[in-house]
């Protein structure tokens, strides 16, 4: 019996058969918007969770393992307390971070370099690529003649960064990466006694470097906070020369530094009188109770970077905004009180 002849493969208009059409269909599907979006979500998930190792694996280069807030306890207050070289064997400035956790009456202290803060920020940017994180201080430093001044400026910037970070979404502020950054290391335990004794009073990077006091008037009327910078007395400089002081303020937290206010510069004096009003409009009393006034006194320099003379940070919840408060405040190296 003669076998049935094979049926010819259908030929499409372009002259190719059905089987030859499959690669073109696959290529077309790979180029579709839906497929590209699925690949994006898949890669994003891999990127995010690849940065979260188990507790037995380090998540930061300077920490032996990963920790969580379930182990360590949630943080109630945190600030960059001061900075010093003697805590760091590399002789670079290291920043002392003061931490108060829920259920604790006494604060703890950890010691972190600027590079370690930078590593924290970089890894947060990888793990949370779609979140708006606080801006990180600029790393670039021109020249190396006034490194102490740079450290003073960075302390203020790092403190502002931490306030904004801890005010962010709980997904970010309470992630294992942030907890690991604040977990005490062996070097922290060795130096904590020194920092704890310093916490009892003012602590400056070099004994006697920070001095003086500022007189402020704080009042509130019609949705506006008024900060009058009245006088400053007994400023101290490292080289003994008269500074060119001015005052700069922020309302923290302030991610984008929109709350910066400045006075004029007073030339060649340790006891300037400003009597200058710094105004913050559009804030309710309820909002201000959640803010802190950070005030820094700096010296304006024409041939070098402006340097830090002292500062204070005042929680506005401690003020009776229904009346004017006029008071002298001692300047310290720790701008967060």
From TrEMBL:
Domain PX: 73-189
All copies of domain C2, residue ranges: 206-329
A Pfam family: PX
Gene3D superfamilies recorded: C2 domain, Phox-like domain
Protein's recorded name: Phosphatidylinositol-4-phosphate 3-kinase C2 domain-containing alpha polypeptide
UniProt xrefs under PANTHER family: BITESIZE, ISOFORM I
SMART domains documented for this protein: C2, PX
InterPro entries: C2_dom (IPR000008), C2_domain_sf (IPR035892), PX_dom (IPR001683), PX_dom_sf (IPR036871), PX_PI3K_C2_alpha (IPR042133)
């Amino acid at each position: 019996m003669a076998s049935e002849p094979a049926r010819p493969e259908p030929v499409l208009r372009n002259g190719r058969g059905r089987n030859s059409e499959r690669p073109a269909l696959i290529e077309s599907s790979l180029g579709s918007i839906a497929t590209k979006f699925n690949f994006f979500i898949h890669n994003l998930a891999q990127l995010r969770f690849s940065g979260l190792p188990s507790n037995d694996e380090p998540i930061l280069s300077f920490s032996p393992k990963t920790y969580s807030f379930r182990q360590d306890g949630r943080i109630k207050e945190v600030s960059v307390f001061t900075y010093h070289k003697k805590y760091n064997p590399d002789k670079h400035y290291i920043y002392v971070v003061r931490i108060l956790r829920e259920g604790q009456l006494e604060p703890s202290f950890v010691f972190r370099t600027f590079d370690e803060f930078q590593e924290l920020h970089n890894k947060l940017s990888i793990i949370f690529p779609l979140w708006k994180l606080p801006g990180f201080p600029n790393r670039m430093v021109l020249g190396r003649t006034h490194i102490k001044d740079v450290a003073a400026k960075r302390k203020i910037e790092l403190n502002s960064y931490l306030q904004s970070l801890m005010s962010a979404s709980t997904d970010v502020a309470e992630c294992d990466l942030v907890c690991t950054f604040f977990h005490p290391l062996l070097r922290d335990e060795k130096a904590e006694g020194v920092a704890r004794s310093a916490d009892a009073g003012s602590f400056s990077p070099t004994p006697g470097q920070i001095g003086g006091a500022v007189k402020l008037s704080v009042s509130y009327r019609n949705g506006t906070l008024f900060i009058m910078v009245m006088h400053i007395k007994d400023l101290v400089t490292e080289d003994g020369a008269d500074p060119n002081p001015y005052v700069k303020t922020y309302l923290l937290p302030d991610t984008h530094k929109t709350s910066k206010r400045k006075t004029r510069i007073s030339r060649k004096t340790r006891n300037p009188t400003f009597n200058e009003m710094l105004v913050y409009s559009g804030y309710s009393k309820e909002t201000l109770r959640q803010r802190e006034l950070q005030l820094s006194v700096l010296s304006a320099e024409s041939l070098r970077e402006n340097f830090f003379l002292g500062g204070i940070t005042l929680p506005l919840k401690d003020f009776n905004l229904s009346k004017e408060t006029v008071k002298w405040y001692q300047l310290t190296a720790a701008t967060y009180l």
